[in-house]
Design brief:
By secondary structure, this protein is mostly beta strands. It has one domain: Rossmann fold, CATH 3.40.50.10420. The chain contains 1 helix and 10 strands. The strands form 4 sheets. Strands 5-8-9-10 form a 4-stranded mixed sheet, with no helix packed on it. A two-stranded antiparallel sheet has the order 1-2. It has a two-stranded antiparallel ribbon with strand order 3-4. Strand 6 and strand 7 form a beta hairpin. The longest helix is centred in the middle third of the chain and has 6 residues. The radius of gyration is 15 Å and the shape is globular. The two termini are 28 Å apart. 20% of the residues are buried. The structure holds adenosine-5'-triphosphate and magnesium ion. Magnesium ion binds next to loops.
Length: 153
C-alpha cells in the first residue's frame, strides 16, 4: 500500500517453499489489533478492510504469538530498530505485552531510502530486530535489544 515495499516475491523463493505465510486481518476486538490468516493461493478472493487493504477470507486467524516472524511494513526506520508506521498503532497494539519467549522475530521491510538518522521513540513503540531493504539487511544495534515489550494500556 502507498509505496510500501512489495514483499510478495518472497513466497516464490525456494528457501521459503516449506514455510507458511499469513496475512494480517484487522480485528474489532480487541479494537485496532491484528490477527493473521493463511495467505491463500493467488487468485483467491480477498475482502477489503476499512482501509481498502485486502484480507484473506479464511476462518483461521492466529495471534502474533503463533508467528515465528512478522514482516512489518513501515514509513521510516533507524539503525536502532525504531519504526515509524502509518500512525494507526496496529502493530504496536498487536505486539504489546507479548512475553519474550512468545515474541516473533520482528523484521522491518523497507526501501533503503526510508532509513533516517534517528526516530523519536514513544513508550508503546515496539522496536524491530532486523531490517531488510532492497539494498541491505541489518541486525538492529544491541541498544534496541533492551527492547521493551510494553503492556497493554
Ligand atoms: N499498546 C497499545 N495500547 C493502546 N494503544 C496503543 C498501543 N500502542 C499504540 N497505541 C496507540 O496507537 C497510536 C498510534 O501509534 P504510533 O504512532 O506508534 O503508530 P505506528 O506505529 O506508526 O502505526 P502502525 O504500527 O499501525 O504502522 C498511539 O497514539 C497510541 O494511542
Ligand atoms: Mg509505533
Amino acid at each position: 500500500m502507498d509505496g510500501e515495499i512489495d514483499p510478495r516475491a518472497l513466497r516464490q523463493l525456494r528457501h521459503f517453499s516449506r514455510h507458511r505465510f499469513y496475512l494480517p486481518v484487522l480485528q474489532r476486538f480487541p479494537a485496532g489489533t491484528l490477527r493473521f490468516a493463511p495467505w491463500q493461493a493467488e487468485g483467491r478472493r480477498m475482502l477489503r478492510n476499512r482501509f481498502g487493504i485486502p484480507e484473506p477470507r479464511g476462518r483461521v486467524q492466529l495471534t502474533a504469538r503463533h508467528m515465528d516472524a512478522i514482516l512489518l511494513p513501515l514509513t521510516g526506520f533507524d539503525a536502532q530498530g525504531n519504526r515509524l508506521g502509518m500512525g494507526g498503532g496496529f502493530y504496536d497494539r498487536t505486539l504489546a505485552g507479548l512475553r519474550h519467549r512468545h515474541h516473533p522475530l520482528l523484521v522491518g521491510v523497507a526501501h533503503a531510502c526510508q532509513e533516517v538518522a534517528a526516530l523519536p521513540l514513544q513508550p508503546w513503540d515496539v522496536p524491530l530486530a532486523l531490517v531488510v531493504t532492497d539494498r541491505y539487511t541489518f541486525r538492529c544495534r544491541p541498544a534496541c535489544r533492551a527492547a521493551r515489550y510494553p503492556h497493554q494500556q
